[in-house]
Amino acid sequence: MLHSDRNGASSEVPFLVSWQACPMGSLPVITPLAGTTFGATVTQIDVRALDRDSFADLYATWLDRGLLIFPGQFLDNAEQDKFAQRFGMLEFGASPLSNVRRDGSVRPTDGSDDMMQVLIGNMGWHQDSTYMPVQAKGAVFSAEIVPDTGGATGFADTAAAYAGLEQPIKDRIADLRARHSLYHSQAQVGHAGTSAQYSGYGFHDGPVSIRPIVKRHPETGRRSLTIGRHAYDIEGLEAAESAELLASLVELATEPMYTYHHQWTAGDVVVWDNRRLLHRSTPWPFDQPRVMWHTRVAGDPVTESADAA
Ligand SMILES: [Fe+2]
After folding, report:
1. Helices in the chain by DSSP H: which ranges?
2. What are the structural domains, with CATH classification, of the chain?
3. Residues lining ligand 1 (ion), CB within 5 A?
4. What pTM value is reported for the model?
5. Quick one: what percent of the chain has pLDDT higher than 90?
6. Residue 186 Cα, ligand 1 centroid: separation in angstroms?
7. Confidence (pLDDT) at 99
């Protein structure tokens, strides 16, 4: 199947050989993101109405590209969860990531609101649920209300970044493992999270997850990096050395050639591979509402479990 990039050039994505015509009567158009190593925009598609073969093609494209963006879908929560379930069992269904309360008021940024503190924390690069016993496989994320400016979601390709590392760095990190904790990452932004407030999700009192820094993708076999704001305290290293190494890996993995920031339009839906990509949000004028919906796809316990400490 042919794809065109934003400059009009055509390329062939090897995975795609047999797209089925979708119910809208035409083939989806896959447009790889320009200037980076991953991601694609998919148009002429209704993600509510994919038959088995079409979804199999879409899934193969997702594994290949790591991030798919579907403009103008306008899914409701049930439709979003149903689409996410095609990628795997859910860790949790559609949940608001929003600076708007149920009564319509905008949440304060003075540190008193737990949801706002987590939203601010999410502006650091991370992978979802690495602090849980089983990290997430991926997520479906959609935009309902977007601000006039800012509020983008950034993604970074740690598989391409790992492949680009110099051999001495690969050798240094080959057998290293780091701890992952939401308490740790939220403390870095001045938020002492407790399970009594917010949803409490992730602020669990179980064992701290320990994960290898180098991860082998269970479906593609590619190696990538499990790093980001939840990671700290590499086994066998002094705290300062650990922090420096983890920060340097995030810096390498988020160089412009490995990143893409999606500026949302209401109705957009994306699905990303959390075993490969880091992500983050970017600031926006916090007096403006931003309402996003997040459905998290559960990781396979065989390949996404942490080694508990
Ligand atoms: Fe996240």
Report:
1. 52-65, 77-85, 114-121, 158-163, 167-173, 182-188, 239-253, 301-304
2. 66-299 (3.60.130.10)
3. 128
4. 0.90
5. 76
6. 13
7. 93
